[in-house]
């Protein structure tokens, strides 16, 4: 077991690399970033940042505001210069003039990037034309994109006539109409209703099934848990941890969370729970007992046995492992960010 410290918190790794300084030379992925350094005067936005993404992944890139996520993406897209490091996409060096590589990339930005004076169809056709010259080929691609995001009934509408969710779906269509192999989604579901959010997430998974590699950033942890095959947590321009959801959960000392519905008002249940060795924190609200436990395989069994021995009756019991949000806060801290 590998151990390290992030801030003042101890984390554990079950056997995958934590805080990598140099990526191993293995089969090159679709994205390979090594020792990337980007500064804004005195501010170090990226501090020897490393990233490797294999073809076919849905890769989640997480971090607090100002952690360097957008800067890293803009460097990969050659929208920003950088002081040090290398970027390879599709196994080749990425440079500002590599338009052949850029044609294989799609971008769905956080900010809406459509033209208010153009219709839905015209917007998608314009952005597709940046990658595909043939009008005949574009016509089919545009129609596919419209159908993909469910905007068939709105093709002649201008953006100001669309709801927030429909505009977000238009934003997605503009970024993926040319069928890119690598797609960057930067918080694509901000401020949309649950139906539109579900449609966007299902669309991203469909794009992945059809062969696109996805890089996905979001502050909605449940979305990342739902769709991402591997996740990186970064802060202060550095990669702090990387792995699958399960691997990241195993990094922290917090184990499962247990919620127990007591069948009667039993104030002694809280005091009993607080005395259990495996319980890190216990709270009680009415007849609901909530426990945060240390890592272990028998926490629920030990808890229920202790309640039974004390003659405390209980009904519904709920247990879950630490969430990605728990991991994120444990690693990056709980201080408010700008």
Brief descriptors of the model:
4-stranded antiparallel beta sheet, 338 residues, Alpha-Beta Plaits, globular, disordered N terminus, 6-stranded mixed beta sheet, 11 helices, Rossmann fold, alpha/beta, 2 domains
Tell me what you see in this structure.
Helices cover 31% and strands 30% of the residues. It is α/β, with parallel strands linked by helices and 338 residues long. The protein folds into two domains: 2-19 and 26-249, 3-Layer(aba) Sandwich (Rossmann fold); 254-321, Alpha-Beta Plaits, CATH 3.30.70.100. A six-stranded mixed β-sheet has the order 8-9-10-5-11-12, with helices on both faces. The protein has a four-stranded antiparallel β-sheet with strand order 4-3-6-7, with helices on one face. Strand 11 and strand 12 (238-243) form a beta hairpin. Helix 3 packs parallel to helix 5 and helix 4 (135-148) packs antiparallel against helix 5 (164-176). The longest helix has 16 residues, at 194-209. Mean pLDDT is 90; it is low at 1-27.
Summarize the structure.
This protein has 338 residues and is of the alpha/beta class. It folds into 2 domains: 242 residues, P-loop containing nucleotide triphosphate hydrolases (Rossmann fold, 3-Layer(aba) Sandwich), CATH 3.40.50.300; 68 residues, 2-Layer Sandwich (Alpha-Beta Plaits), CATH 3.30.70.100.
């Amino acid at each position: 077991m590998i151990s390290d410290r992030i801030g003042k918190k101890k984390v554990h790794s079950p056997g995958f690399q934590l805080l990598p300084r140099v990526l191993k030379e293995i089969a090159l992925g679709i994205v390979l970033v090594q020792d990337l350094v980007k500064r804004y005067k005195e501010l170090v936005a990226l501090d020897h940042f490393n990233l490797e993404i294999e073809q076919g992944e849905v890769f989640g890139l997480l971090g607090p505001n100002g952690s360097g996520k957008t800067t890293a993406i803009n460097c990969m897209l050659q929208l920003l210069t950088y002081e040090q490091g290398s970027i390879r996409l599709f196994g080749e060096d990425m440079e500002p003039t590599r338009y052949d590589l850029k044609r294989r990339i799609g971008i769905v930005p956080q900010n809406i990037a459509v033209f208010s004076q153009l219709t839905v169809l015209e917007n998608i056709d314009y952005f597709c034309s940046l990658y595909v010259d043939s009008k005949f080929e574009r016509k089919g691609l545009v129609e596919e994109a419209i159908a993909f995001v469910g905007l068939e009934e709105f093709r002649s509408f201008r953006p100001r006539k669309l709801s927030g969710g429909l505009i977000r779906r238009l934003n997605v269509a503009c970024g993926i109409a040319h069928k890119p192999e690598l797609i960057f989604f930067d918080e694509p579901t901000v401020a949309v209703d649950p139906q539109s959010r579900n449609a966007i997430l299902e669309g991203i998974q469909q794009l992945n099934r059809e062969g696109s590699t996805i890089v996905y950033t979001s502050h909605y942890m449940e979305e990342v848990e739902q769709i991402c095959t591997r996740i990186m947590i970064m802060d202060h321009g550095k990669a702090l941890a990387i792995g699958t959801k399960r691997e990241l959960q195993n990094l922290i000392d917090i184990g499962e969370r247990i919620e127990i519905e007591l069948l009667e008002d039993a104030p002694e249940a809280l005091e009993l729970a607080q005395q259990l060795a495996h319980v890190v924190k216990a709270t009680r609200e009415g007849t609901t007992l909530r426990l945060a436990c240390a890592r272990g395989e028998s926490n629920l069994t030990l808890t229920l046995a202790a309640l039974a021995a004390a003659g405390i009756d209980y009904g519904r019991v709920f247990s879950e492992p630490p969430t990605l949000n728990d991991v994120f806060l444990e690693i990056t801290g709980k201080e408010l960010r700008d």
